């Protein structure tokens, strides 16, 4: 029997339209806009000025604190300016705008296709290398990897959990990466295990990716310390808490992190980036992005440079369909509608979903019928209808009591509500306010 997490969950239509499509290396755009805030934590601080000439992989912005990340140039060329640009959040943030001139890489990067399996770095060197290379979680959260690997005092990790689930409908970038870069991913997992000083790892992969399960399992025959766990298809299994529950049967207490149960979670895309950083000295300046949608001419998986306008990827997939209503950054469940197709690709950009009008329009909100479907599907055991009510009435203490901060914003409640109530919209609003109140107490 296939494993899954123990509480809630849904099974939306998968719509993996780009499954099996080989990763296509996208041409380099004439200009890129590289945001300084494309990770959780403090925005990076620019190290370049207007008129500076940069190479691919050159450090152009330094982390501004422990929870922050270095940023490297995705292209070679000249810095046009440092200005505000609208990013995927819908707000303007500072970005380094570079005009592309050729494709000259930093000489320290190993560009050979040779697989390097031997790991000759020690744990603290690995953590430092990932910090230098600007590696962050590529599953969407973009949490700096060196922070995850720096365990709090007194905490012990005994297993590494690798997220190969990709449960979000439509997206296939992780799946295709496992098919094309499986050997590099395994080396990346071994590097992460060495950094954490753990002897066990498990890769969770949903059962709709049988080819990836078979390929990774065969490859790991020589590495019994790493196993593949086939999982039932169930959204949102890619959430850290849900994945840990599904793979190793441990439940994380409210408000706590995975390390509380001795686990650390990393995405398969992150494992590949770790391999490139440690074995090839390659910083994170490009990633695989899925461009998809039911009206998209050629749903694809592209290897794109950070800072590339999303319109560039959309054009490469056949252009914007005439019936387009929304462009979503990410998948349909957790992604957010974009103001413009000129929003730049960032480290956290897993996909671009083009939604036709018939799928994008929301139905009119109706009264709650007290069916409790939102409660039954919530993977965190919350009461979404109550959190929406508390937020709408600005009863912040009640929202906090009902653990609004535990919400992982998966959208399962919205998906299942027969009254089309915008539960997640209100919960996101409430989380922002309650989080602000809680932070003010610690000052």
Written account of the structure:
With 443 residues, the chain is an alpha/beta fold. Helix content is 28%, strand content 19%. The chain is globular and about 65 Å long.
Strand content: 15-25%
Number of domains: 2
Which quaternary structure do these chains form?
A: single chain
**Fourth-tier CATH superfamily name of the largest domain:** NADH-ubiquinone oxidoreductase 51kDa subunit
> Could you describe the largest sheet, including whether it forms a barrel?
6 strands, mixed
User: Number of helical runs?
Assistant: 14
What is the end-to-end distance? 49 Å
Characteristic terms for this protein:
single chain; globular; Rossmann fold; 4-stranded antiparallel beta sheet; 6-stranded mixed beta sheet; alpha/beta
How are the SSEs placed, and which strands pair?
Elements: E1 23-25, E2 31-35, E3 45-46, E4 53-54, E5 59-62, E6 71-72, E7 77-86, E8 92-100, H1 123-133, H2 145-148, E9 159-163, H3 173-180, H4 182-196, E10 201-206, H5 210-219, E11 226-231, H6 240-248, E12 263-267, H7 268-280, E13 286-292, E14 300-305, H8 310-316, E15 324-329, E16 336-337, E17 351-356, H9 357-360, H10 373-377, H11 384-392, H12 396-401, H13 412-416, H14 423-441
Parallel strand pairs: 1-14, 9-10, 9-12, 10-11, 13-17
Antiparallel strand pairs: 2-8, 3-5, 4-7, 5-6, 7-8, 13-14, 15-16, 15-17
Summarize the structure.
By secondary structure, this protein is α/β, with parallel strands linked by helices. The chain has 2 domains: about 1-20 and about 105-360, Rossmann fold; about 375-440, no CATH class. The chain has helices at about 125-135, 145-150, 175-180, 180-195, 210-220, 240-250, 270-280, 310-315, 355-360, 375, 385-390, 395-400, 410-415, 425-440, and strands at about 25, 30-35, 45, 55, 60, 70, 75-85, 90-100, 160-165, 200-205, 225-230, 265, 285-290, 300-305, 325-330, 335, 350-355.
